[in-house]
Every structure is written in C-alpha cells, then in structure tokens.
Amino acid sequence: MAGRLTNWAGNLVFSAGEVARPGSVGELSQVVARGERVRALGSGHSFNDVADSDGVMVSVAGLPEVVEVDSAAGVVKVSGGMRYAEVARRLHDKGLSLHNLASLPHISVAGSCATGTHGSGDRNGNLATAVVELEMVTAEGDVVTLGRGDGDAFRGAVVGLGALGVVTALTLEAGPSFDVRQHVFDGLPFEALGDHFDDIMSSAYSVSLFTSWRGDTVDQVWVKHRDGDPAVPEGDLFGARPADGPRHPIAGVSAEHCTQQLGVPGPWHERLPHFRPDFTPSAGEELQTEFLVPRSRALAALRTLHAVQERIAPVLQISEIRTMTADDLWLSPSNGRDTVGIHFTWVKDTEAVLPVVALVDERLAPYDARPHWGKVFTTAPEILRTRYDRWDDFHTLMRHYDPAGKFANAFIRRNILAA
C-alpha cells in the first residue's frame, strides 16, 4: 500500500497492510474469501477504529453504482458505497424522497446504517430504519440477502458494525418528494427546556438545538418545517429570537456552506442536512462524540451536563441536541426507546478531549446513555452490553455468519467480543 490511509478527521491512521478496491461484487467475494482479516471501508467518517483492519481493508467505493427505483413498491436499491447526497439527488429527480438525512450528506449509505447514524425529528427513526433489505458478502465469499421478512436475522444485521460481512447494497423505503422551509432562532433560555422541551422539539418535522455550553442560553434552534404541516409560529420561539440572517452552528463562522435558511422553501435533500454536499465540512479539523439517552431522561441528562459546562466548553466547538423515535434494530442506539442525541464537536486535540469525553460518559451513565458507534467514546465494554437487550443474540448472529471472526477487528474484539 503506497502511503497510509487515514479517516476523514485524520485522527486515526488505518493499520491495514493491504487496501483492496474491487470493481465488482465478484471480485469482492474473492478478496473476502481468501482474506484472514477483512474490514469494509466506506466514506471514512468515523472518529474511532470501527472501520480499521489488521488485515485487508476493502473499499466499496469502486463497486458499480446502483440506483434502482421501484416507485410502485416505494423503495430504492442503492450500492452501499454511495453517498447520501448522490442518492438523494437521484431520488428527488424521480419525485421521491428518503424520510430523513444526517447533518452531513457526504457519508456513505452502508457505513451510516451500520453504525446507527441518524438525522433528527420526533417522528423520524434513524437512517437504518429505512432499510427494507440488505445484501452482504459473508466470510466464505457468499452473497447473502436479508429482508424484513427474515425477522430477527434482519433486525440484528442492519446496524451490524461491519461484523457480519461487507454490505454491498441496501434497499430503502422511499416516499414522495417534499419541500422544507428552514428557520433559525437565536438565544433560547436554557430554563425554557425544562418547561417546553417537548413543545420545542415537536414544533417541526426536524429540530436541532445548538449550544456551546456557555452560560444559561442555547445558542441556536434550527427548525425544519415540512410544507403542508402546521406553520412555524411567527415571532419568538419560547424566548428565542428569529435570526436576522443565515447562521452557521458555530458562532462567527460563515454560513456560506450551510443549507438555505430564512424560510426559503426548497427540496427535502437541500434542507434536512445542515450542510451542503458541495464542500468539505470543517476540513476534518474536529473530533466528534455523541451519547444517546432515553427521551424520558433527557432533561435530567442535560441539567447534569450544564452543571459541568465549564469543563466541556474549553475543548468544544459546538454541541447539538436532537431527537429520534424508537426502533427494533438490535444495536441501534435508539433500540426500544424514543431517544435524544447529545452530540459534541470537539477541537482536534485528542489529548485534551479524551478526559472531557470520560467526564461526559461518567455523568451520563446514570441515564443509560449509549455512545454513537462511530465516534469517540470511553464507555467500558461491560457497561455497553448492559445497554442492549439483544447483545447476546448479536453474538450468536456473528458466530453464524462469521464463525472464525474474519470481520472482528480490534474495535469489535474490544467492545463486542470482550463484553
């Protein structure tokens, strides 16, 4: 391998001794069958070693592009290495949509679903909940298809952390295209969360709170209103003022690369993400952490963090708070419970950030917090296993599809197999 690959943030140099870039599923099957240790690489937008390999790393970016729309069934089959930005554009051109998108449309479909990555919205499940079928190459090079009709095996495989095989394609639910108007409000009093949290987070199709954890004010509220839903009220939003111009979540940073605001209507894929797909977000100058807590315990968790904000703020760029609905996917951070995600975009200084991540982890532990699988966390494996009811069942599924542990990299051995 000429040179070493890094993840998107550059905080991790992949340890793989070989990187394969197959041009077909047949070639991929051969690579997997002959390899002793294999891991799939998507867009590299993870901040830990979940995608790393101590053997062969397989990039799925070179597999043939697949976008097969079945309008009658309301589904689209896409190749796993495609980015959401491209899938969304192609769907919109056909008058269709996905139910949700993440903050960044730059991430790959397979990698996002495998780690339980999400968008925002009280009635919206994470991105993996749109999956109705997946195809993967398993340890012997076989191509396996699992759909919702396969019950437990499917529910265990969708958020599979790359531990069951290399996902080559996914079939996603698709609905009619829709327009969204995005408004931003400045300066929400922190105390308003205690009185109106549910009202605020349910006030539109998707709502995000951005806070720098300084003082007693939430910096911004981003409200994404789906056309046809009840209109966003004019004037203040529970004490937050309408922004007088476009905003970037981080104060003082140009909003040039953010999606259109000020209530200008536009198609779903140009409003649901916070950032436009035609630029490189932050140029990788950040680390990220996210903890997901039950909706019923979110306010207590936020108050706990507010009490230690003087430790959080010095190494923080911005924090985002958003909601998602419960699902039945075994290792989804939203499994079995309506969920609030508390996201942290840190400065790119691992030595300074890790002690603060450990502090946040400790403070949120009493609230059954689950870390995002693809971000920086310090949660002990023995704690992780207590957070998921189907943990042991996932172990059984791994033994079924990968009995020799071919896909079990250091992350899987440390966080899943050791627990």
From TrEMBL:
Q: Name one Pfam family in it.
A: FAD_binding_4
Identify the keywords attached in UniProt to this record, alphabetized: Oxidoreductase
- Entries under InterPro entries matching the protein: ALO_C, FAD-bd_PCMH, FAD-bd_PCMH-like_sf, FAD-bd_PCMH_sub1, FAD-bd_PCMH_sub2, FAD_lactone_oxidase-like, Oxid_FAD_bind_N, Vanillyl_alc_oxidase_C-sub2
What sequence ranges are listed for the domain FAD-binding PCMH-type? 12-177
What PROSITE patterns does this protein map onto?
A: FAD_PCMH
PANTHER family with a match to the protein in the record: D-ARABINONO-1,4-LACTONE OXIDASE (PTHR43762:SF1), L-GULONOLACTONE OXIDASE (PTHR43762)
Task: State what protein this is by name.
Answer: D-arabinono-1,4-lactone oxidase
Q: What organism is listed for this UniProt entry?
A: Sphaerisporangium aureirubrum
